[in-house]
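This protein record is not my work; I was only asked to verify it. Would you go through it and say whether the fold makes sense for this chain? Here is the record exactly as it was handed to me.
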Amino acid sequence: MPVILIVDDDAALREGLAEAISDLGHTPLEAPDGAAALAAVAGRHVDAVLLDLRMPGMDGLEVLRRLHDRPEAPPVAVLTAVPTASNTIEAMRLGAVDHIAKPIGRDDLAALIARMLPAAPAAAAVAPAGEADDLIGNSAAMRQVQKQIGMLADAGTTVLITGETGTGKEVVARALHRHGRRAGRPFVAVNCAAIPADLLESQLFGHARGAFTGAVADRTGSFREADGGTLFLDEIGDMAPPLQAKLLRVLQDRVVTPVGGKPVPVDVRILAATHQDLEARVREGRFREDLFWRLGVVPIHLPPLRERLADILPLAEHFLALAAGSAAPKQLSADAAARLLSHPWPGNVRELRNAMERAAALARRPVITGTDLAFLRMPGGGAEVDWLEGDLPTALARLEAAMIRRALDAAGGNRAEAARRLNIHRQLLYEKMRRHGLDMSANRTGSVGNADDPAPLDGS
């Protein structure tokens, strides 16, 4: 039978996983920390590893690095109660099969092990540590984006990032650069829609002195400025057809010819983004089909904020913290949270940030209420979004976060009292607060151990 190694410092969680793994017909093997896990793998054959992220001593990412330095490393899935963009990206970049938020149900565990057993993923290089976590959001859609970033960061592959205006396409591009092998080299961003077509060629490819009237000095151009690093071409769908042809040639040959100058080889990773439907523009003859396929080697799609409801409140709190600077950030009342979740966000994350900055500047109280957000209106004065809209997991997450906020407000921030009002255990309240990105620094009664305090295997 396949041997599944469970690495977690919580004995109760290990026992629960071991029982479930035995029921699935596999042989469980337990390790309480990273050192014991490495010793277990060195001492016997292990088919797959379930690895906790936060443990005393050696953390999960370090264990993952060391496991994948071994020949014929077993496939590893990382389990954590505190999934963040950074640890998700780093785990996937280091070769993890998946990065799962605790608690994990038995059906999901069975599916995960089934994916792990056929073959182990290839190991990747060690990631730089300590980078800022600016990809806020734990929705299923955003976590999928984070996983894609982790898998693509070290590749030289051209990536096309799509999504509505304001969804955070440049944030994704910068994360791909920052977490990859080119992180120490330049990241150069060019907005193809903001520069007139007659100037964009010079901006991208440079020009030689005297190449045209007004060219009084040589210009390097963005391609050569990004040499060794990453060039991000934002709003690529607005590029004029003549420039599309020249860009295609550069992508194929990796040679740039400045206006009036000689060809120069470049080593640049290209990331592109657009809010437009490029396939439709190809059909209309407004975008070259060969360039479309060259740019879209690997696509990453950012869904609109209205489809990422679980991310709205964590993002709002993040922007309130940014607006506060070194001061204490303002908090959201339950009715303010409800209004944020009901708004359709046609401007996506950019609109949400503007709304939080406006509310933080104008609200005179430390708590922002629904009245402070009265400026949020449906386009055309339509009705608010139905709280029951969308699939069941999204609706439940929306309702659960709002109820927890209301209970905490009513209890004056006392978590034990909030848990009593909600009729759940205090530790389960902490877990749900972490899952929904709610403020964990407020007043609390009682204490929790480390950030990976266990929740029941089935999440009940």
Summary: The chain has a mean pLDDT of 83. The radius of gyration is 25 Å. The longest strand covers residues 269-274. Residues 392-410 form the longest helix (19 residues).
